[in-house]
Amino acid sequence: MHEIVDPTRLKSESVTQIYPVVLSGGWGTRLWPLSRASLPKQFLPLVSEKTLLQETLLRNVGDAAFAAPVVVCNDDHRFIIAEQLAQIGVQPRLIILEPVPRNTAPALALAALSLAEEDPGATMLVQPADHLVGSVPELHSAVFHGLAAAAQGRLVVFGIKPSRAEPDYGYIGVGAPIDSISGALRVEQFIEKPDPATAKRLIASELFHWNSGIFLFRARDYIEELERLHPTMLESCRRALAGGRTDRGFMHLEAEAFRESPSLSVDRAVMEHTDRAAAILVDMAWSDVGSWRALWEATSPDEHGNVVHGSAYLDPTKNSYVHADGKLVVAVGLENIVIVSTDDAVLVARSDAVARVHGVVEQLRGQNRLEASQHTTIYRPWGAFKTVDCGDRFQVKRIMVKPGGKLSLQKHFHRAEHWVVVQGTALVQRGQDTMLVGENQSVYIPVGDEHRLENPGKVPLHLIEVQSGSYLGEDDIVRLADGYGRA
């Protein structure tokens, strides 16, 4: 294991500028029903009061060696990302928006091309947005030891000593030390998610370590390897950036060019084929928090081996994980069980069967179940709304508008809306009229009328919206003007 570097010494020394690159493209379906496509696990506070994304970003704050981060994310999540960064006071260098998912190799190409244009010697610290690192000093120490390898053109991956044969993780096989680079080992093999029998064999050999998915390399070195191994991917990313536009800190890619890129992970596209790979082993209490079992293990249990979040009563229950999001959950006489309750779905599974959750979600998607990918609460840049009831020709929503938040100027062809303010004051534009609507007051928006809702106050605005009409889908919105670039 490498020597831990004193962070106070690092701040006083001249060190290479490190550019954190945070990848936020996963959906985390193995943590369903909490994690869904509309709000995946990186945006949830699963292990602390902060979300996994916020925890990842805060690892690199406060040290002069780290530059402002680059975040690569799904276009649908851009406002959630911006809100969560603002909550922790982190100003990103750039937020790159992917119009379609194309896995991690193209995402890193976008970041590398952007950084190399700005700083030809840029060194990237690549981190998934949804992983847990229990010891940040150990991570930083490993990163600074890895700079020497990166400076020699190596693509550094950080390996974790395995504690069990885990088939859901990737593995790296390491060999002899690399001459002249302290703590760096040659990478002999990458194995992505082996079957259980293979995972046991890898562990028994003591030559394989978990692949943390955290990398360190210079942007230009990654570009060179991608040019050699997947030139069409690199060219698609170049054209997507060249044809894109920057707006409000977001980089919008040219969608058609990016769609032409092959969809490959960085391991499959580059690390499995390069002769530049180097491994640095680090003990940093790492977890990908990729399943209910992993989340269970990352949390301290009570004297009965139980982990409980939310309102739950257990009697007598042992070695179980219960997450109650709202309703009271009562478990009696259970053992080795996972229970996760949300307002629209409940998961009950044996702890040794939670790996099957991903497949169940895929089956639900095949049945077009909204619960598979969408929460009842939908987040928007101005606030959020939640559907509380619906039926033939009607739908009821609870709407929250943040202080200063303003919805787009819009109209609907198929529905009328009734708004009842229950907290705060609404500024409503309806046709040519503008009015203030206070608590216990209401306003009616006829079909086809142009309208806009705004919160001019300093407290959140809450109202009940009753929609009625022949079609109530979210795509029945014609935006005429919008402060968030959606019109």
SSE topology sketch:
Blueprint: H1 7-12, E1 18-24, H2 52-58, E2 70-74, H3 78-87, E3 94-98, H4 104-118, E4 123-128, E5 132-133, H5 136-151, E6 155-160, E7 170-177, E8 184-192, H6 196-205, E9 208-218, H7 219-229, H8 231-242, E10 245-247, E11 250-252, H9 255-259, H10 266-271, E12 277-281, E13 286-287, H11 292-297, E14 307-314, E15 321-331, E16 337-341, E17 346-350, H12 357-366, E18 377-380, E19 383-391, E20 394-401, E21 409-411, E22 415-423, E23 426-430, E24 433-437, E25 442-445, E26 451-454, E27 461-469, E28 478-481
Parallel strand pairs: 1-2, 1-4, 2-3, 3-11, 6-12, 14-15, 15-16
Antiparallel strand pairs: 4-9, 5-13, 6-9, 7-8, 7-9, 8-12, 10-11, 16-17, 18-19, 19-20, 20-27, 21-28, 22-25, 22-27, 23-24, 23-26
